[in-house]
Amino acid sequence: SMFASINNYLNPDFYKEHPTFEYETETKSYTVEVFAAYETNTDFYYIETNFQEPGSFTTYLDSVKLKSTITTNVEVSKNDQILTLSTCDSGLDYGKGRFVVQGKLVEKIL
After folding, report:
1. What is the pLDDT of residue 89?
2. Edge-to-edge strands of the sheet including 20-24?
3. Residue 32: helix, strand or coil by DSSP?
4. pLDDT tens digits for range 12-66
5. Cβ–Cβ contacts within 10 Å for residue 93, how many?
6. Catalytic residue among 10, 74, 83, 88, which?
7. Staple 89 to which of 55, 71, 78, 99, CB 3.0 to 4.6 Å?
8. CATH architecture of 4-107
9. How many CB atoms lie under 10 A from the CB of residue 14?
10. 76 and 82 in contact (C-beta within 8 Å)?
């Protein structure tokens, strides 16, 4: 229930009204530029964080963008940090379904 409202990103109109959101840690504040929102299951390792092979991050981003229900102009490169939010999607698959929103972190200078 904590991230249930991220399901709104299935609607392209919602994305147009909310292309970014704010994220804060104890030491930094960020604007998150949403670049993908999609339904998947745990067979797709959307929480990948280890990209050892050259080009593997780019390949991962390409697969994420193909899955996305929204189209964005956000450019993400191997030098960017991304934030991944996910929630259960029992409509897709009761045990393994997930809804995922991913965005690029842009540090806010205060």
Report:
1. 67
2. 20-24, 29-41, 97-107, 82-88
3. strand
4. 899 999 999 999 999 999 999 999 998 886 677 667 777 778 788 888 888 899 9
5. 15
6. 88
7. 99
8. Beta Barrel (2.40)
9. 16
10. yes
